Amino acid sequence: MSTPLHPPGGALPAMPAGMPGVPSPPPPMGGAYGSYPAPVPAWHHPQPMYEPRRRDGLAIAAVIMAALALLGVLGLGIATFVGSELAPSWVLTGDVQPVNGSTTASALQHELTRLLEDDGSFVDDVTCPDSSPVDQGAVTVCHGQVDGWDWTGIVYFEDGGGAFTLVQH
Question: What residue ranges do the domains of the chain occupy?
Fold first, then answer.
């Protein structure tokens, strides 16, 4: 009796090679009479023909740029510190001798000129009011030419003894 899975006689009919779903016969293995080379193990990789290049140029460039950036920041810090020490001050302190609670224009102008020249400025002209009260909180405004520019100085008297703070604009 035959079943659909096993044909009569027990052998499967031969199928022609090259048909879909039909495996090809295995190639003959190498040896003295084989026509194919011996198989290569799957773990074997052929050696490259040249030595592969190292790809660390980007890392070197990044280190150089970081070093240059650090030097730039340090240079800016030094330039800022040195520049602030050499630049003229915008706030100066001085002292005049008051007479009867006020000071004359010539005494205040002389003291302001001395302060500005000691600070490194070239004073062309300074003009103050004829009489300025000297007391805590009193304010006097003077004008002039300093270093070739229009100059305004606001004098804030700190006490009745003539100590003052000059703010330049």
Answer: 91-168
